[in-house]
Description:
By secondary structure, the protein is an all-alpha fold. The chain is built from four helices and no strands.
Amino acid sequence: ELEALTERETEVLECLSQGMSNAEIARALIVSEGTVKAHLGRIMSKWHVRDRVQILVTAAQAGLVSFH
């Protein structure tokens, strides 16, 4: 059972699943790159994963994202 994400963390996850870089996510969500990194860090902590690839694998396995 994965710990739930905030609405903003979910938006970051969605952007990540579209292959966006931190800079692209920051522009899309109108936040700083540091804020994007903080959101990704919180997702990694919540889900006990090491990196952005594992975030995506975990999210896909849980049915939270699909790749288009």
